[in-house]
């Protein structure tokens, strides 16, 4: 059988979550920091550990069949690949930012000003779309210090919490794009059975991550109210308890719905609420 290759970041913000996701898919491999390639012992797959900037081109050119990388890197490298699945981690935004005391307040103020960035392609398209004529200064890192050094009037950089901007006396000013890690594939690879199987495994892990298995006890007479509060993957199971007039309700629900409803459930008489993690949900 043909062996697939998937490229993930060797070290950096996406490495740990990418490895965790693949391991949660039941894939067995050694995560040696020193090796470039790691075979999976229980699936026809090899893992390539690369700099994230190289991943889109490796996938486009077929050196790797699949890759996990930030959408920002894909857009910047302008490759032609298939987007197979958003992965829900590595979330960040590419933002414009200016010094706190800057006279730049809206986009048009950027005309004839300079903007430092490591994302010239994405920024260039954004400025063009908005009819702004600014000078893009491409630098390879530490973008946030460039206004302080007098290198630029503004910056365009990735932000997740905004802490780095703040500590450099900058304020966010406009969103250029939002990004998260995605699974990409060489064009057409999505038709291969092995790839479909891998995507299904990834989806079952992602689904499980956002859902919880909930068990609670309730007086039988309140059951209708409680069931209304628990929209599950399917309808909940209701089991009689040894104590007369009481039932246990078992269900699988999105975690965010659950936290919103906990006080309503208690009001409806739910007791002994147990919330458990789920490993996989296969539909
Ligand atoms: P490499 O050595 O592989 O080239 P890098 O230094 O270019 O790594 P990282 O800083 O590890 O990249 O970021 C990898 C990806 O993580 C980014 O491309 C982006 O998609 C995502 N990310 C999430 N939050 C942030 C953030 N606050 N700053 C930068 N990137 C972030
Ligand atoms: Mg990089």
Describe this structure in words.
It catalyses: 1-(5-phospho-beta-D-ribosyl)-ATP + diphosphate = 5-phospho-alpha-D-ribose 1-diphosphate + ATP. The chain has about 280 residues and is an alpha/beta fold. It folds into 3 domains: about 5-90 and about 180-210, 3-Layer(aba) Sandwich (D-Maltodextrin-Binding Protein, domain 2), CATH 3.40.190.10; about 90-180, 3-Layer(aba) Sandwich (D-Maltodextrin-Binding Protein, domain 2); about 210-275, Alpha-Beta Plaits (2-Layer Sandwich). The protein is built from 8 helices and 15 strands. The protein has helices spanning about 15-25, 55-60, 70-75, 120-130, 165, 195-210, 225-230, 255-265; strands at about 5-10, 35-40, 45-50, 65-70, 80-85, 90-100, 115, 135-140, 155-160, 170-180, 180-185, 210-220, 235-240, 245-255, 270-275. The strands form 3 sheets. The protein has a 6-stranded mixed beta sheet with strand order 2-3-1-4-11-5. Strands 8-7-9-6-10 form a 5-stranded mixed beta sheet. Strand 2 (about 35-40) and strand 3 (about 45-50) form a beta hairpin. The longest helix has 17 residues, at about 195-210.
Write the layout of secondary structure elements.
Layout: E1 4-9, H1 15-24, E2 37-39, E3 45-50, H2 55-60, E4 66-70, H3 71-77, E5 82-86, E6 92-99, E7 114-117, H4 120-129, E8 135-138, E9 154-159, H5 163-167, E10 170-179, E11 181-185, H6 193-209, E12 211-219, H7 223-228, E13 237-240, E14 246-254, H8 255-267, E15 271-277
Parallel strand pairs: 1-3, 1-4, 7-8, 7-9
Antiparallel strand pairs: 2-3, 4-11, 5-11, 6-9, 6-10, 12-14, 12-15, 13-14
Bound molecules: adenosine-5'-triphosphate and magnesium ion (MG).
The site of adenosine-5'-triphosphate has 16 residues, from helix 3 and strand 9.
């Amino acid at each position: 059988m043909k062996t697939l290759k998937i490229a993930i970041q060797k070290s950096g913000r996406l490495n740990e979550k990418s490895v965790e996701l693949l391991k949660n898919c039941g894939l067995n491999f050694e995560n040696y920091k020193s090796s470039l390639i790691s075979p999976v012992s229980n699936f026809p797959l090899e893992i390539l550990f690369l700099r994230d900037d190289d991943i889109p081109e490796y996938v486009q050119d077929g050196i790797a069949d699949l890759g996990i990388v930030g959408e920002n890197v894909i857009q910047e490298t302008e490759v032609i690949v298939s987007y197979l699945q958003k992965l829900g981690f590595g979330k960040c935004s590419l933002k414009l930012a200016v010094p706190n005391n800057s006279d730049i307040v809206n986009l048009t103020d950027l005309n004839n000003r300079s903007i430092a960035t490591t994302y010239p392609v994405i920024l260039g398209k954004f400025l063009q779309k908005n009819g702004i004529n600014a000078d893009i200064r491409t630098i390879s890192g530490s973008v946030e210090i460039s206004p302080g050094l007098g290198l630029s009037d503004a910056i365009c950089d990735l932000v997740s919490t905004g802490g780095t901007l703040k500590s450099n006396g900058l304020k966010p000013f406009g969103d250029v794009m939002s990004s998260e890690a995605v699974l990409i594939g060489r064009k057409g690879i999505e038709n291969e059975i092995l790839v479909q199987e891998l995507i299904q495994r990834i989806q079952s892990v992602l689904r499980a991550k956002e859902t919880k298995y909930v068990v609670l006890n309730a007086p039988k007479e309140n059951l209708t109210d409680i069931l209304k509060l628990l929209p599950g993957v399917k309808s909940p199971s209701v089991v009689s308890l040894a104590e007369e007039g009481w039932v246990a309700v078992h269900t699988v629900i999105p975690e965010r719905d659950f936290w919103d409803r906990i006080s309503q459930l208690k009001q409806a008489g739910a007791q002994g609420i147990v919330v458990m993690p789920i490993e996989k949900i296969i539909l």
